[in-house]
Amino acid sequence: MDLTDEEKRTLQGEFGEAERIAMRVLTRLGEVNGADRMIPVVSAHLVACSYQIAGEAGIEIYTQLVEKGARVKVPTTLDPGSIDFNKWEQFRTPPDYAQRQMLIAELLKKMGVLPTWTCTPYYLLNIPHFGEDVAWSESSAVAFINSVVGSRTNRMSAYVDLCAALVGKVPRFGLHVPENRGGEILIEITPDLAEKFDDIHFPALGYLMGEIAEDKVPVISGLRSAGFDQLKFLSAAAASTGSVALYHIVGLTPEAQTLEMAFRQRKPIRNIIVGAKEIEETIDRMSTFRGGKVDAVAVGCPHASVVQMQKYAQLLKDRRVSGGVQFWVCTNEIVEAISRKMGYCQEIEKAGGKILVGTCHNDCPLGAWQFRSLVTDSGKFAYYTPTTVGSQCFFTSLSRCVQAAIDGKI
Ligand code: F3S
Fold first, then answer.
1. Which atom in ligand 1 lies closest to the alpha carbon of residue 120?
2. Which H or E element spans position 44?
3. Minimal CA–CA distance to 377: which of 318, 313, 275, 304?
4. Closest CA to 227 of 342, 312, 124, 305
5. DSSP-derived pairing of the beta strands 248-249 and 218-221
6. Is residue 315 within 6 Å of ligand 1 at its C-beta?
7. Of 133, 217, 274, 290, whose CA is between 20 and 30 Å from 150?
């Protein structure tokens, strides 16, 4: 790799041991992936901030970095942690587990990392622009900002994301290179499906798209409109079943105003037609739980927006969650604060729901709840919770999720 004088001096330890280690990791990553040079990033977003991911090894790494004087060089935000920092007891988190998570929070704060604890920092807290290079982990957010915003990041991994934050740079390869951002697979939505495309179809399309595309760049054609939250669901599901880090939607996402633009003048290597039959089959496959008594209803994956909080409040108004069901909404502190000012949180809580802040079902220890059957409107939860929570999962629309919480069954 072609390194600047300053980068060479960083590698020699002139700016401290923490930066030396970080630069060593990044240049090695660049060499392995054929990068030509390092490029600056405007922000970073880290995943190894939850105790569930970081564990004791993470605490050891962060402790050593803090001792070596590590400080992030660019605005750096955090993915969800493993506890609701204010109400962890209410969510039956073991006290020793909560203490370890708080220690991680303290160590990250010492390095200058912002305690955002959310997988949707692009709402309010860390907003990259079109064409900007960033260093983000959290697969759902990576797919969202690459595709919907047009920022540029590879799917960073735990700790490598922190290395990028510590030097404010990444090696230039993969999705940082404009020529690599062209589409590879064409997914054509049939007109009959496009006509009735609804909220539930976005996570389902993402789920199917991830399976089809794996690590390729898919291009969707035929969709007529897509809202911010709908694209958030699509991104999260695609990044779960596949390792999709970038997709284009012709006419809707910024690097795909036309089909030719999406493919950067190249031909797709595969064409897939997705109609009502394919999407219904996918929705069916997304559920491992076929119906019966419901233990938990989980919404807010990725973390809910204020608009979604309003929807939950409206659907729960003057209703009551069944006694045997835990209805939890996952979101971040800022959305919670605004939603509380608007009375949405109070409406959800009055109905018997709980707001889980700064974490989610996949990140916190839920063994004490013994959830066996979980209902969700999230493709990402549908994919992961059978493993992370140990529950069978029923994927459905938001209104059916709420109805299942009221009835105690689906
Ligand atoms: Fe966010 Fe947790 Fe879903 S991190 S994307 S709410 S699995």
1. 1
2. strand 44-46
3. 304
4. 305
5. parallel
6. no
7. 274
